[in-house]
Design the sequence.
């Protein structure tokens, strides 16, 4: 009999083992006021899409985008609602956007390093005429990252509403 009590766990070990078993089993406790109606509280695919669409709408959907080469040519395969006819390369890294068939609240610009020989800090503006020879709806200036000059360089632009 004495040998059997030798292998019995201590009370603290028994509590620790019980806690381990409960944690491994994944016991959950309902909050006060929780209901058992799965239909009313379940997050369905439809609800998840609705929430995602609301969040995207709050950020502003892209209404147009384009890949513009260093020479001002728009790649139609990687563009929507912007064509080469909308972009004029003014020289010295200035690109003017005219005749856009949409209103916008802002834009995002990213340098296309495959089509550029320098590192740039692209700058976007909407002032008329700004650096454009005549009034434009928007412009992009490709300024070298040290701010010393603006030079031609390819970029991606996305207009948002």
Sequence:
């Amino acid at each position: 009999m004495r040998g059997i009590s030798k292998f019995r766990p201590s009370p603290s070990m028994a509590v620790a083992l019980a806690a381990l078993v409960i944690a491994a089993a994944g016991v959950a406790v309902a909050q006060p006021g929780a209901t058992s109606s799965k239909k009313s509280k379940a997050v369905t695919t439809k609800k998840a899409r609705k929430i995602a669409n609301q969040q995207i709408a709050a950020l502003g959907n892209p209404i147009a985008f384009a890949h513009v080469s260093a020479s001002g040519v728009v790649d139609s395969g990687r563009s929507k609602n912007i064509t080469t006819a909308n972009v004029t390369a003014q020289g010295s890294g200035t690109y003017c956007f005219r005749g856009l068939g949409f209103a916008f609240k802002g834009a995002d610009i990213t340098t296309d390093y495959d089509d550029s020989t320098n590192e740039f800090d692209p700058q976007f503006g909407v002032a008329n005429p700004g650096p454009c020879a005549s009034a434009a709806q928007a412009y992009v200036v490709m300024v070298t990252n040290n701010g010393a000059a603006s030079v031609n360089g390819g970029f991606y632009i996305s207009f948002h509403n």
Observations:
- The longest strand covers residues 62-68.
- The mean pLDDT is 78.
- The two ends are 82 Å apart (CA to CA).
